Amino acid sequence: MLDISNIELGFNILVAILLVATIVYAVILNKKLDALREAKAEMEGLIVSFADTTAKAEKSLAEFKAHASDTGSGLKENTVKADGILSDLSYLVDRAEVVADRLEEDLGLAREKSPETVLPKGVKPGDIKQNKVKPVNQKGEAKKDLSPAAEDLLKTLKGMR
Predict the structure, then answer these.
(1) How far apart are CA 107 and CA 90, in angstroms?
(2) What backbone torsions phi and psi does residue 132 show, to the nearest 5 degrees?
(3) Which is the most buried residue in 61, 62, 88, 128, by most CB within 10 A?
């Protein structure tokens, strides 16, 4: 027969089992909370480090923008100066071509009058070959007899255009 004392004993055993289960659950929960607290401390450190890195990046970006602006201004000034120098050089090259053409004509006339007096250094009067047919340049014009140095000068001046 069922006795009240047996029912009480059964309830007490049931309560004891539930208490043991609660204690085991509390221990496991406590370990997880400890791990969470440790992770929280690490996370706070990471957040502080991230904030510092972000502040440094913002400062570097501001410095970069200032430097880029200064460089852009300097580059613009240098471009303006270079444009002025380019126009000056272009004018000088044009003038040099006119002078070179004039010198070339004068040299041709001088060679026609007295070829011995306008020979380049190291060339003897006997070394000159008189050709009746003059070579033709790319434009179809007759080439003028020039020394190698004069030809180099003309090529250089024409290359500067």
Answers:
(1) 25
(2) -75, -35
(3) 128
DSSP 133-154: SPPB-TTSPBPPP--HHHHHHH
Rounded Cα distance, 66 and 142, in Å: 60
The pTM of this model reads: 0.37
Q: pLDDT digit of tens for each residue in the chain (161 aa)?
A: 567 788 899 999 999 999 999 999 999 999 999 999 989 989 998 999 999 999 999 999 999 999 988 888 888 888 988 888 888 888 888 888 888 888 888 877 877 777 666 566 666 666 655 443 344 455 555 556 677 777 777 777 777 65
For the chain, how big is the Rg over CA atoms in Å? 50
Q: Rounded distance, CA 28 to CA 21, Å? A: 11
